[in-house]
Amino acid sequence: MDTIPTESAQTLRQRAEDKLKTDGGVTLKALSPGETERLLHELLVHQVELEIQNEELRRTQQDLEASRTRYFELYDLAPIGYLTLSKQGVIQKANFAAAALLGPTRTSLLNKPLTQFVFSEDQDVYYLQRKKALETKAVHIWEMRMVKDDGSPFWAHLQATPAHDGECWIILTDVTERKHAEETIRHYELLANHSRDIVLYLNREDGRILEANAAATAVYGYDHDELLKLTVNDLRIDSTWHIIAAQIAESGPHGVLFETIHRRKDNSTFPVEVSYLGTTINGTRTLIGMIRDITERKQAEVALKRANEELEKRVSERTRELIAALQNVEKESSRRIQAVEALREKEQLLIQQSRQAAMGEMIGNIAHQWRQPLNTLGLIIQTLRAFHGTPDFTKALLDESVTKAMEIIQHMSKTIDDFRNYFKPEKEKADFNVYEAVASTVSLLEGSLQNPKITVEIITKDNPVIHGYQNEFAQVVINIVVNARDAITEKGIADPKVIITIGSEDGSAVVTVSDNAGGVPEEIMDKLFDPYFTTKGPDRGTGVGLFMSKAIIEKNMGGRLSVRNTGSGAEFRIELVKGIQR
Fold it and tell me: Which pTM does this prediction carry?
């Protein structure tokens, strides 16, 4: 609404006074009724206009007060830090959140350069981003490390907005916890993506796949985005997620382990061993599933069962043939039949003893290999339990304990893979590196060579490749080293040592295994490779290890195995045909 200037009101009043013709008092008789009415009307109009102006001024003042209150709420009481920097980067204004993040009070922050709170290694990042914001007159966002007034570091998320006269507004947020969480997630993603097993992160409520590693996409045939649209029921041939979830709920912190059948994208199926463990990630009740394809193991089990059935069938058929032949010769052939049966039993016993000896030795080695890591894992868990609820139970302690535990678990997993590879059946000969085979075999025996502590030294004069069966070659090396260990233990050698030398002679690969146990008595040297011959006693040896070793090297691999005494002990010599150098 338009208002009458002050000059108009004064003129009107002067004109009214002139017309009133005051002479010792106010008289209205000099004005005509029409003039008086018009004058009163003009005065009323001006009074209304003045009241409207006053009302507008009151509303303006109220709006100003409201704006000040909103400014205080939006700026000073904001939950994130706000800073106003001068052209030189000095803090001009700061809200309470910024003061809580950087210093004890807002006053202590004023007139200080923001660089005082920037990590020294990130100074260049700060200068570059602030310069870009001022030059481009656009908002720039970045993250960098900062340090508080008391010297404690933290990760900050910054948003720089250019203002007038070279000033800059900064929005400051502490993202330390998010950074640590991202680092932890990256750590677990690294472990998962380098695992040969399938790793799935599942929603515990409905079994939806939240994340999957590279092995999962390779095995199931789905790409990553496709997997994240599925539930675990889509991968199983039977939809029993609710049953599994109930089992996991009852299993406690150890999770569940079972075998089932999974389905690929092309609808082909394969057997798996599944282990589920419950946890919480970003507030979501989550299951971590470790899934291993056990197709080879199942095939091996079936093949072994068929082989045993076939072997029993052939033995049975052969026995019947022998019995029939002997019965046709004469009725008194029962003695021969009994001899054949006895021979068959001895052959079966020989095979069984060899298998049991190898299995027993490997089981003992697994126990040795796992005992110390299991003790260490137990100590880590006990330490976490002891420190839980105390000031010493920090995130750093938890992260360090988790890292150590994961390293131990990876080591134990590798140990199992090594032993599994050792027992994997080989159908065809293949070229393999001698040193790698020997080193891997010695690592399997590491646990059983600790009491007494026996030093095993591998000397490589050459790096030959052998054409044959690597696992059978490893069994021979194990038999020889175990015999050396037993001889050293029995004789109580003060400084026990086994030396394995790898080289080449006359186109053949040569491996020698020598010890310092004093050697083999000459009177039994010729019997050392006979079946059932042993110097350990019936309770410690079967006498089939060296017999089977000689059969493996000479019959299966076309080489030669011999033994001789040196000045300090026995030396076994393996000679084999070289393969193609890799």
Answer: 0.36
